Amino acid sequence: MANKIAVLMGSDSDRPTMQACVDILKEFGVETTFKVLSAHRTPKEACAFAEAAEAEGYQAVICAAGLAAHLAGVVAAHTMLPVIGCPMDGGIAGGLDALLSTVQMPGGIPVASMGVGKHGAKNAALFVIAMMANHDPALRAKYKEHRAAQAETILSKNK
Ligand code: RP5
After folding, report:
1. Predicted structure pTM score
2. Which residues contact 84 (CB under 8 A, 6 or more apart)?
C-alpha cells in the first residue's frame, strides 16, 4: 500500500504553520494531499472528504484548526482512519482554545492531538511516518536516519 496522507486546514491562514508538516511528509516520499476545508465554513465538503478518505487510500488524516477547532473532531466522526489534530496558535492564550477543542474529545471518537503551532505541525508528520514505518522497512530506515541526523546536528553545536 502506498504511503498517502491528507493534511487539511481550517483556513488558508493556517498554511504557513502547516507547510512544515507537508515539507516533512514530502521529504520522506509520502504522497500528500494539502487542502483547506473548514468544519464550520465548508462543513459538507469537509464531511464528504472524510467519508471518502479511506476508499481514496489515505492512511491517516492530519487536521489543523485554530480558535474553536472542530475540524479534527468532525473528520474523526466521519472516518475510521486515524485522525491527528494540530491546534493552531493565535487564539486565546497562544492557542489554548484550539488545543482544548482538539484534545478534549468525548470518549468513542478519538483524535490524537499534537502540540500547538509549528512544533505540533512537524510532529504530526513524524507521528504518521512512525505509524507507517511499522509496516514499511524502507520508511523505517529513513526515519532512523532522520533521527540520527537530528541528534548529530544537536551534538555538533557543542563543538
Ligand atoms: C479556524 O479559524 C482556522 O483553522 C484558523 O486557524 C482560524 C481563523 O481563520 P481565518 O479567519 O484566518 O480564516 O477555523
Report:
1. 0.97
2. 60, 61, 62, 63, 72, 111, 112, 113, 114, 124, 127, 128
